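Following up on my earlier thread - several people asked me to post the actual chain instead of describing it. Fair enough. Here it is, all 121 residues.
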Amino acid sequence: MQSDQYSYLPILMQLILAVGFVVGTIIISGKLGPKRTSEIKDKNFECGIESVGNARIPFSVKYFLVAILFVLFDVEVIFLYPWAVNFKELGIEGMLKMIVFMSLLLVGFFYIIKKKALDWE
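Reply from S.P.:
Thanks for posting it. Predicted structure:
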């Protein structure tokens, strides 16, 4: 029974080391880091271009919807790669499962086209 508990010891040691490293880095950077501030250093900076206007402008929900749909269908298409690599070993059963998967993918794709989720207004 004790051998099972000792097998978790490396995981516990790694967890303690990771948390200790993060906490130690935060404490050391707070004490040793530079504390000089100025108007130029505190200014917003992005890609060499000075910021203009407010960064809190509202985005259309359509933008986020298209991004989420892209990620969703992109992840689903990633599942095609292992199937294509093992195509011969999976046989007819694998082919039938992939037909079901692709049909569900196409049904979802046609659904979002019907709902006009990808149309910009």
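The first strand starts at residue 45 and ends at 46. That should answer part of your original question.
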